Amino acid sequence: GAGVSQSPSNKVTEKGKDVELRCDPISGHTALYWYRQSLGQGLEFLIYFQGNSAPDKSGLPSDRFSAERTGGSVSTLTIQRTQQEDSAVYLCASSLVISGSYEQYFGPGTRLTVT
Amino acid sequence: AQSVTQLDSQVPVFEEAPVELRCNYSSSVSVYLFWYVQYPNQGLQLLLKYLSGSTLVKGINGFEAEFNKSQTSFHLRKPSVHISDTAEYFCALGTSGGSYIPTFGRGTSLIVHP
Fold first, then answer.
1. What is the distance in angstroms between the CA of the first residue and the CA of the last residue of chain B?
2. Measured distance CA(A93)–CA(A103) in Å, rounded
3. φ, ψ (nearest 5 deg) of residue B61
4. With contact defined as beta carbons under 8 Å apart, do A56 and B101 qualify?
5. Measured between alpha carbons, how far is B78 from B3 in angstroms, rounded to an integer?
6. B18 vs chain A: nearest CA distance in angstroms?
7. DSSP line for B12-64
8. CA dihedral B113, A37, A52, A8 (to 10 degrees)
9. Are A60 and A46 in contact (CB under 8 A)?
10. Contacts A97 to B, Cβ<8 Å
11. Are B5 and B104 in contact (CB under 8 A)?
């Protein structure tokens, strides 16, 4: 079956512009996560959606970052007024959260370069 | 609070040699543990997971890990590595109940030399 897909795969933007990154999770997965991975670094948690609950935004680094998930499926991560330090790979993951088992399925990522 | 420590940022090894990637965790509640692999320019994929039961867990590509509660460890092992195992490996921890946001280690880069 189809895995998690992300678009675009690469995005180059100028400092100060807004960008939108899209994630299509695996059908039926109730949980969706966004992470940021800077060069040579681990995963930085950004935001978590679970069903119809309010998202956990505790990882968003600033108010320039926001995300939404429409209809419990597709998610869009928006970065406003991009800065050079926003350059990173943005990974999306989805999960079927059932008792005890919530392994994540990751997309290939969007590589964002801010010039 | 919970945490995951991957003790080695980089592990070089020769092809066909055994390898162990170390992971230690800290949590005050019951844990679930995962190992993920990330090949260059790809997302992460699950290698194996420990939820409960047998402490020796076998995963894909010949990898296995052992959950050791007394030592709070979940080390990943492979008896004979291949060039194709060169990748970044992440250990992750989840807890029963509460938030379903796993805690990830910083990753270990496995470099297999011919």
1. 41
2. 10
3. 60, 25
4. yes
5. 24
6. 25
7. EEETT--EEE--EEE-SS-EEEEEEEE-TTS-EEEEEEE-SS-SEEE-GGG-E
8. -90
9. yes
10. 100
11. no
pLDDT band at A39 (very low <50, low <70, confident <90, very high): confident
Residue A77 amino acid letter: L
What are the pLDDT digits (tens) for A88-108?
Answer: 999 999 998 766 667 899 999
- Assess B64–A contact: CB distance below 8 Å, yes or no: no
d(CA A40, CA B9): 10
Cα separations in angstroms, A26 against A5, A78, B70, B73: 8, 21, 37, 31
Question: Which tokens is B104 given?
Answer: 């990830």
Note the pLDDT tens digit of each residue in A13-26: 999 999 999 999 99
CB distance A100–B52 less than 8 Å?
Answer: yes
Assign residue A39 a region (left: φ > 0; alpha: ψ between -120 and 50; beta: otherwise).
Answer: beta
pLDDT at B48 over 90: yes
Rounded to 5 degrees, what are φ and ψ at B83? Answer: -55, -40
